[in-house]
């Protein structure tokens, strides 16, 4: 959910890294796992899901229906008008049609509050949501911790891992009862050890149940500010995981090898964001594991699978396009999240005209003396000219609540200092855009 980074090689058909394991794949057949992460409703109002469905169909034709699995590693249902106007339901409908087999919750799956996510997970999605560390107050998992899939004579366990940063990157109140007591958690304590222990416990359970391969579906990322819960740290403090398919940091990682606590190699991969590519994990018949990224532009758009999802997306688009295209304002200048000199994103480390305008708007709405908006919540630019309702949704896709509170001058200073904690070092979604100061 953070700044996009490029690790290793490029996007289209990325170089493959392979590892040999002693187990052979099912009945001499390769097993293929397709994966996405941080799709955030895509850049094209959901149409990338048609390409994802088309690519899954291509792989099924090549490898067989029973040997291809499609998974998502979090932050799918939020980030665009499709998610905002339906509280994620339209994205889930599209993912159902695209043939997803399982998913995990990222931090943004909770942006529409807990009841909404649980309804999605328990009722709307035709695929299971997994997370070993999203737990109730008593420590019991809210969702299934892992799912075992049998391919011929080989069992593969998929273990879900959600970022403990969810506790603060979503509204903390979403995880509390009416008395303000936390009734949900993400194993966020003990400087990382609580998460490592929970993951290890789940991996051990899966192996005891017969898993010959363990694939972690993770929303952890590789940003240092996510420490001690980065995917590399989870790998380094556990054993038994063969592959981590990651998300959260929007990094493009075709294939990386990380040592686990026993010094064994674990594959790590992540696809970037906004469906820039789809990941492909191959468990070969000879026991080798490899990951690569495939550009969706290379997908056949004439298949039935592609066109069925395309039809679903177009039907949904008709439901919101009139509202999205409604003009609500005009601007003589571009309203931007970027540095006007370098063109690089600046809203998480400096004030921008769009960030300050958002703060001005909240201040005017609530008749406040001062207003703050976190830079991480300002998600898109607006070109000069007419501004539509859809533009506003793109800037603020989270559905956050504006709150009016009485505070002291010291509390204002504390908030500014907290938001500036990473100034000059790195981006920070908590950097404050301000009005009235």
Shape: globular
Q: Output the helix-strand order.
A: EEEHEHHEHEEEHEHEHEEEEEHEHEEHHE
What is the overall number of helices? 11
CATH names the topology of the largest domain as: Purple Acid Phosphatase, chain A, domain 2
Quaternary organisation of the protein chains: single chain
* Biggest beta-sheet profile: 7 strands, mixed
**What is the first-to-last residue Cα distance?**
29 Å
- Residues in β-strands, percent: 15-25%
Query: How many DSSP-defined strands?
Result: 19
- Strand neighbour order, sheet with most strands: 1-12-13-11-10-8-7
CATH superfamily descriptor of the largest domain: Metallo-dependent phosphatases
Unreliable segments of 5+ consecutive residues: 1-16
CATH architecture annotation name of the largest domain? 4-Layer Sandwich
User: What's the CATH class label of the largest domain?
Assistant: Alpha Beta
Radius of gyration: 22 Å
Helicity level:
25-40%
Quick check: average pLDDT? Answer: 92
Protein described:
By secondary structure, the protein is an alpha/beta fold. Helix content is 28%, strand content 22%. The strands form 5 sheets. A 7-stranded mixed β-sheet has the order 1-12-13-11-10-8-7. A 6-stranded mixed β-sheet has the order 2-15-14-3-4-5, with helices on one face. A two-stranded antiparallel ribbon has the order 6-9. Helix 1 runs parallel beside helix 3, helix 1 (48-63) runs antiparallel to helix 8 (304-324) and helix 3 packs antiparallel against helix 8 (304-324). The radius of gyration is 22 Å and the shape is globular. One of its GO terms (molecular function) is hydrolase activity. Residues 1-20 form the signal peptide. Belongs to the 5'-nucleotidase family.
